[in-house]
Amino acid sequence: MPIKDQIRNLAKKLVEEHPDAATLRALVRPRKPAAFRFRDDGIVPNNPRFPVLLYRGAVNLKSRRFPPEVIIDTLFDTNGWGRSWRDTVYDFVHYHSQIHEVMGVARGTARVECGGIKGRILRVKAGDVLVLPAGTGHRLIESSRDFGVVGAYPQDGTYDECTDMRERLDAVTRIANVRKPKSDPVLGRGGPLLTSWRTARSRS
Where is the segment annotated Disordered (predicted)? Predict the structure, then answer.
């Protein structure tokens, strides 16, 4: 999301009550994520090293004290994924060539296309978390009226938004230079993202 959306969300976070570390740990369900690999389709580069990860039911959002958005936002921030935003997902294919992105579903359900038009449509619902490595094409196909996500980014990297095929060749170079994050956005420094992305190999 644009910087202005991140700033607006930061202002909101400053006045919210956030769960403490113990409460947050109790709301997180250890999950082994499903992994999805997508090839460069000639339009969307996707990522040659790292798979998309989907943690299903990773966050218990039935707290009476904290709104779902606050729980997910606090979880990501605690694990080093900041610059967050709260909204829906764009309904046009786009990707980020200089940074990875995580999206946690706070409310509702949706079908999200990952990997570009030749990729795969994933069904997500409240409590699911989707991690998109740099270069992964994504867009919203359809959703419930109340659908909302919290998005965030690791400490390293610069936000950008690619939609034009003319950017593709330069984007491929930028994607290759995006480093693996230091922490899993759901389970922290010992999370499965670090193992999954460490052992990921380039596709032929």
Answer: 183-204
- Whole-model pTM: value is 0.91
Q: Which CATH superfamily does the domain covering 3-196 fall into? A: Jelly Rolls (2.60.120.10)
| CA count, 13 A, side-chain hemisphere, 204 | 0
Name the DSSP letter for residue 181: P
Q: How far is CA 191 from CA 19, 51, 121, 126, 130, in A?
A: 20, 15, 25, 21, 14
What stretch of H or E contains 149? Answer: strand 148-154
pLDDT in tens, 7-42: 777 777 777 889 999 999 999 999 899 999 999 999
- Express each pLDDT in 111-162 by its tens digit: 999 999 999 999 999 999 999 999 999 999 999 999 999 999 999 999 999 9
Query: What are the residue ranges spanned by the domains of the chain?
Result: 3-196
Distance, CA of 122 to CA of 149 (rounded, Å): 15
DSSP per position, 65-119: SS-HHHHHHHHHHHTTEEEEEEE---SS-BB-SS--EEEEEEESEEEEEESSTTS
- Of 55, 46, 51, the closest CA to residue 200 belongs to 51
